[in-house]
Specification:
Elements: E1 6-7, H1 8-20, E2 25-31, E3 36-42, E4 45-51, E5 54-55, H2 57-63, E6 68-75, H3 90-96, H4 120-123, H5 128-143, H6 147-157, H7 161-169, H8 175-192
Helix pairs in contact: 5-6, 5-8, 6-7, 7-8
């Protein structure tokens, strides 16, 4: 890993190079505030982003605010493991791949690629207060009294309702039961949004 903090646009340019070369592995980042982030690549596809206990779209939103970082790529076959957080949104992938020409950013500059307009769709509107009671009622039939605790944890960790539902469903022992829960919850949530 380089000891120098580089503008984040340079880091995105390096990420684009790794994607273009169909690399598999982990791009480890350390921000100028000493926070760690990881971008997992499989055959040139960005599979997962983790930063500040957030994953994928939420992690990308936080990375948008990072002015610079040190970066090191570690090739690994372990990168082929499927993401448990679901796929990144098209808007997040677009931002990660929007690296401007690295030479256009002066060394030490905090300027990096602006998020596309579509990224705002990730953060608005927050329907969780309306969604949570509906999801909790459905979860109660699957989990019993512990449903409230599982929902509290899942809703506290994410703004993405799909990620919330998948996290709750992951507590069910049987895949078929998890699929039934997800189908029922998605149907109920669709009526709210």
């Amino acid at each position: 890993m380089s000891n120098e903090i580089r503008p984040f646009s340079t880091v995105l340019h390096e990420l684009n190079t790794l994607v273009g070369s169909k690399s598999s592995g982990f791009l480890f980042l350390v921000t100028n505030e000493n926070a760690a982030a990881t971008i997992r690549l499989r055959n040139g596809t960005i599979e997962e982003v983790s930063f500040a206990n957030r994953h994928n779209d939420e992690a990308v939103q936080l990375l948008m605010k990072v002015p610079g970082a040190r970066a090191r790529f570690q090739p690994s076959v372990m990168a082929a493991i499927p993401s448990k957080y679901g796929p990144l949104s098209a808007a997040s992938l677009e931002w990660l791949m929007s690296a401007p020409d690295a030479s256009a950013t002066a060394p030490g500059s905090a300027t990096h690629a602006a998020p596309p307009a579509a990224i705002s769709a990730i953060t608005t509107p927050d329907l969780r207060p309306k969604q949570r009671p509906v999801v909790e009622a459905i979860a109660l039939t699957y989990f019993g009294p512990i449903a409230g605790l599982l929902c509290e944890e899942a809703f506290g960790e994410s703004r993405d309702i799909e990620r919330i539902l998948v996290q709750i469903a992951s507590n069910l022992a049987e895949r078929a039961e998890a699929d039934r829960f997800l189908a029922e919850a998605r149907k109920a949530i669709a009526r709210i949004t």
